[in-house]
Amino acid sequence: MDNCENQVNRRPKSRTPPVAYVISLFALLSILCEGYDMGASSGALLLVQESGSITLTPLWQQMVMAGPLPTTTLFTLIAARVSDRFGRKKALMISSFFFTLGAAITVCSNNRQIVLLGRLVLGCGYGFSSATTAMYVAECSPHHIRGRFIGMSQPLLTLGTLLATVVSGFFSYNKTNGWRYIWGFQGILGVIQFFGLLFLPESPRWFMQKSLKKEARDILMRIRNGKNVDEEISEIEASFQEIQRSNEKSGVDVLIRMMKTPSVRRALMVGCGLQFFAQFSGVNTVIYYSGIIIQMSGVGDVSTAIWNSVIINCFNLTFAIVGVWLVDAVGRRKLAIIGLFGLFLSSCCLATTFLMAVIHSPVVSRRTDLSNNTCSTYSLCDSCIQDTSCGFCFEDKNDVINGICLPVSSSLNTLPEVGACNSSSTNFEPAKTWAYDYCPVSFSWVAVVGLALFLMFYAPSVGPLPWTINAEIYPLWARSSGNGLASMTCGFCNLISTATFLAFVRAVHSYGVFYVMSFIALLKLSEEMHESESFIYSQDDILGHGATSNVYKGISKKDGSFCALKVFKNKRDSTWKILKRELDILTKIKHENIVRIFGMEIDGCTGQPIIIMEFLNRGTLYDQLREPENLYGFCDQMFLSLLKDLAAGLTQLQIAGIVHRDIKPTNILRSIVSEGREIYKLSDFGTAKAISGEDEMESIVGTEEYVHPAMFEKAFLNREAELISSIHLDQWSLGITLYHVATGKVPFQTKEGLRRNRMCRLQMIKQKPSGVICAREHEDGGIIWERELPATCILSRFLSKEIGNTISHLLETNLAKAWTIPDFLRNVETLLKKVPVHVMQPSQDRLEIFYLNPQDTIPHLKDAIAQEWEIPGQQQLLFHGCINLTLPFETKSISEYPTTRLGQPIILIEKNLIKDIKIPTLLIETISFPKEISAKDSSIAVQICAQIYKMMRHFHHHSHIHDCMMYTVGIINSLISSEIRNTQLLMGHFNYHSLKQEYKSSFESVNILENFTGYSTIRKKYKNVKILFKEAEKLSKIIKSRNIITANVYYNVAERNYLEAIFKKVKANFDEHEKLFAKVREDFQNWQRKSLNALEVISNLKKRLIAETTFQKIYENTKWDKKIRQQTNELIACSKTEANRLSDLNSALDQLVSFDMCFK
């Protein structure tokens, strides 16, 4: 335990290209603009009142202050659509345009309605900014600095607020137009951002979303310093697939599902509750109205009040920056609790300040003799200013004296209607000071201290944490909707608190109630969000679970990268033993096919130990096998890729002397490497142990379906059963895993299904004859033994036989006959060295993959074809591209030829197409949903989609067959044309009187030959079915995900009916296609017979012509191709007789045919 605590391997530092910083700088200017507006409005409102150019009542002050908020909420929703359709960059440019336009309108306004309009336009910019900025920065930033850039949002917001108060301070001495300059400065920031964005790239993730992979790659190469970006592109593709798998529903469906899932519902209550209490804690009112609050506390001079705001915002910025470090050092939950408690204390300080201001309010010592005026009835300054129609006029000489309550001017609240403070009045006294909305007190500095403390505790905790926590507590399928609801809660609460502050300002100390409520609400956070020293994870983002631990998707606090966190369920000594064993093994083995480990930490909330491993973005092999397209197992390419990686991983275990003891699909993880190739990795070494002679196992380990029979009996049926050595465990579980991958199901099942009737299953395995790889219980109770993979397996016949043989040796119950892991690895090494050769025979609708040794030649391929398809070697014409592989000059080994694949196979043309083989009919089951909705809908949807996949594979196969038919037509026509040219060449150089009539009749037979043009309807129908197939695949995954991801199953009847209707349409198209393709195949066979007969006629004539003259004459009088002349020179030297030379010349002419085809 001591050796593995808190030793987290740090990833190597990457050099960040300058363009990444430039992108983030200009994008984050939006945050700076938003912070600037929050700070600027306070000073601007004070100066508007001071200037007297525009009259703003308390109601209008609230409306102007809260003006941007409703349009922000509305345009946040609009911006999301614009961002998805036109790009993140364009959405940010729209936001900067609105910033500039709103500032221009506000600056040029001459009445309060225009001011409000400008504020509303600014809100449109905030809406686009809040929906796009973080997304654009995250998608363009490298992994290792992404979290740092996104974490700059809160410091930049506070920097903008500080900048605004400084600008307000400088312009506060201009009483007439200072407020215009303050709001106008924001337009300058908008212009800078707009023109800066013109030169920046679009988000690569947006290009990937629009299927523009090349553009995304180019941008990533530019902003990643020219590094290989295949791995990042693969991660983006995987994230799209993950979101599509788990969130392919309308917004209404997601919300209903969130409400029906208890853990997500609790997370939503916490997320929205944090935003609710954060806003109603009064923070935005403190920031928006800081200058007004300071003035209300007794600071009469506007400039002084604004410069005091600068001091407060310096605290805000300082502790926002400190908070970036405190989050990692203290932890989110502790920091939030400390922050909330600090807010409670600072709010009490503010409340006490205003309470003392009421208690020590100056006395109204002089009375007015105005009639019909209530102002004369007040005896205290506080009572006087509470009445919006009155203000306090006083003389300040080290103490407030000669105070008088006067009515406010109906047109301008900065002056009294009459009296000593009205400069136009006959009673004007210059020494008097007019206070419309404050009472002069000597302890106003306490309010400044209270505000500074408030922001000091808010900036590092309650400010950023609601956003950080909301980004972490939801599972992936609910993250977008959860964050959207939390943001809407934030906007709505912000609007209410800002728009009603002045109306409730007399009760500001009542905000303490909300602090207590927020403190209590945050205590529930520990139920939803967990963290260790370096990582955070949500219990809903589970990747896998086992008997001793669960694996969650974690997020690095440092750079925002993902990892897999294996969290153990308890803290017992046995847990530490398992943990240490796994750490020791994974630290010892470092290989690309073994999952990497970064270290070990402790959960800060529960104290549970955590192993930190690499996050593999493609899930497990078991997840892959559960996809509908793999319901019948893997194809050759996928199977061999898995086999290669599995063998490489097991080889490393053998070298290290370790037996895994729990090999199964859920312990084989998938990922994408930098070359874009999918790779498989062995994981979960909690039960592994070192091999030491014939040591017995110490404990019962393994999973029921994959565990060795001896272990199965010991674990589930007979505790007294004998154990076997650990070294024999892996081969059995490996054999079961390979069978599962090859067929899509596990072997040895009873009729009741998996994990039912265990005694029957044990007897089935114990009675298994040698060589049997699968057994099924018949309905009558008998057992059906199977020695080969089932017919539903989609592996090629050769590979199916090879893998079946391998599995039979691995599942041998007689340990003396059973293969060991080294035996298996030697077999796999031999198999992987073989070269796959795709051969297609269009006339018989056949495709087969032959696996040959690298040194094998074309004759070996012809022998394999003859054995598999019963076509004699002399009847085979093989073409790969323009190369005729059956000519005697083609003697290279198989490995020297271009690689074949499904789209470019070797074409087999039979010289004598005599018999037509019977093509097996593809059986498609008719599946339908039951009337009643149930949990079985998930498996039925998968079966329906699997049948559609089967038909799609058949459509795809026929499409390739049709293409090869057309290619074969080109080959045969080229052969006929070349033979005709060679024959005409001979006829032109020599006078063949005896063969003139035969020459004429031969060409007449060729000229009447009709060409085969194929069927365009084949491609059209294939295209239509592909569209239906995509719809069916999407719907089946929707229905499947509802059963897998949430225990509260929610189905849509319309989706079930639609999927069933699509299946029927595809089935109808399939049946029609089968009939049409049978006709295509018949027409092609007839054309091929006639064409090959015509080719034979011309070839026979050419041979006759050659036989009528001598080799020397033909060689001397014919203008041969240079390569043919070189080859014929070699033939002359080798040929002993005239007959041999003529035969070799015929071969040389055949080679010329091949050259003609290549030239074409």
UniProtKB/TrEMBL annotation:
Q: Which GO terms describe its molecular function?
A: ATP binding; myo-inositol:proton symporter activity; protein kinase activity
* UniProt cross-references to Pfam families, sorted A to Z: Pkinase, Sugar_tr
In this chain the Major facilitator superfamily (MFS) profile domain maps to 23-530
> Where is this gene product found?
Membrane
What keywords does the record list, in alphabetical order? ATP-binding, Membrane, Nucleotide-binding, Transmembrane, Transmembrane helix, Transport
The Protein kinase domain is annotated at 537-832
- Per UniProt, ATP binds at K566
Q: Which residues cross the membrane?
A: 19-39, 59-79, 91-108, 114-137, 149-173, 179-200, 267-294, 306-328, 335-359, 443-463, 484-502
The record, for PROSITE patterns, names: MFS (PS50850), PROTEIN_KINASE_ATP (PS00107), PROTEIN_KINASE_DOM (PS50011), SUGAR_TRANSPORT_1 (PS00216)
**Gene Ontology CC entries for this record:** apical plasma membrane
- Look up and give the membrane topology term: Multi-pass membrane protein
Q: Which family does it belong to?
A: Belongs to the major facilitator superfamily. Sugar transporter (TC 2.A.1.1) family.
Supply the PANTHER family for this chain. Answer: PROTON MYO-INOSITOL COTRANSPORTER (PTHR48020:SF12)
Which NCBIfam families did the record assign?
Answer: SP (TIGR00879)
From the Swiss-Prot or TrEMBL record, give the protein name.
SLC2A13
